[in-house]
Amino acid sequence: MPILEAAKRVIRIEREALHEMENRIGANFENAIQLILKSKGRVIVTGMGKSGAIAKKIVSTFASTGTTSYFLHPAEGLHGDLGMVHKNDVVIAISKSGETEELLHILPALKHLNVPIIAMTGKKKSTLARIARVNLDISVKEEACPHDLAPTASTTVTLVMGDALAVALLEARGFSADDFALLHPGGSLGKKLLMRVTDIMEKGDKLPFCFLDAQMRTAVLEMAHKRGICPVVNQEMDLKGVLTTGDLNRLIEANDQFMTIPVERVMNKSPKVIKADTLAVIAYKEMEMHRIIAMPVVDSKNKLIGIVHLHDLMQEGISS
Predict the structure, then answer these.
(1) What is the rounded (10 degree) CA torsion for 222, 224, 226, 228?
(2) Cα 110 to Cα 112: distance, rounded to the nearest angstrom
(3) Residues 132 and 120: beta-carbon distance below 8 Å
(4) What is the Cα 248 distance to its own chain's centre?
(5) pLDDT (tens digit, 9 = 90+) per residue, 109-142?
(6) Using 50, 70 and 90 to split pLDDT, how confident is the model at 188?
(7) Theoretical Cys-Cys bridge with 208: which of 124, 174, 226, 232, CB 3.0 to 4.6 Å?
(8) Which regions of the chain does DSSP assign to beta strands (E)?
(9) Are 212 and 267 in contact (CB under 8 A)?
């Protein structure tokens, strides 16, 4: 089979498996969510082999979206690690067959603790499915492996089921972007979620501006010394307009004797502005959308308090 045809076959089989799972998801899924929401403990996810690898990813997704979660290796559970499971926890046990030996061996101990078990199995009549409080169907018609042996479509379906649980729990708990940011403070992701315009804007002595009754000479000097933008304000610092190098270029082309022209005749009287508490990534998107390199920062009364520059946002790793 040609390489591209084989690749497309895998994608088609896995896409169809996901479509089938979407069509059959129902009350059992809702019951699983309610079990977790009502629990006062953590979510313990367990599985062997490929199921164990998917279980670890589900644990990671849970943890980053506000659901405290840990991975339990079934074989290690037989040798002491079951001590990590508390009576208030919920266990998600993953097994395509529902008959994974190591998993079945730890079920009696879990039942003794009276811990609710949510099964993810491909066999509704399996031992695991029967013992579990709730069974989530992760069955597939065929694996993408041409010999129908290597877990492929089944692991994809299981992974997506875990994502569905995580996101449903996130929404049910009202888990916000700010909550997410607190769990991801490092790197570019943390910056996107935590950094606000006030953290990066220029202010104080670095803030360029001129007054409404100034001449273009004053504005040109401000733009030359302070990065090519000059907000125009009244005596109370209310923002009235903005002058940019683009405005200056157009003015020079039209009139080379421009230095004594009042800035009020040249300025843009409806500039794009942003508030100091806005996320920096939103400022980046606004500037990218409107193709501008800087924006005045104003307070709730439209008073000029800062300037945020596209270049500074890019240097901080902020982008859309």
Answers:
(1) 100
(2) 5
(3) no
(4) 40
(5) 898 889 999 999 999 999 999 999 999 999 999 9
(6) low
(7) 226
(8) 43-47, 69-72, 90-95, 117-121, 134-137, 210-211, 229-233, 239-244, 274-275, 294-298, 304-309
(9) no
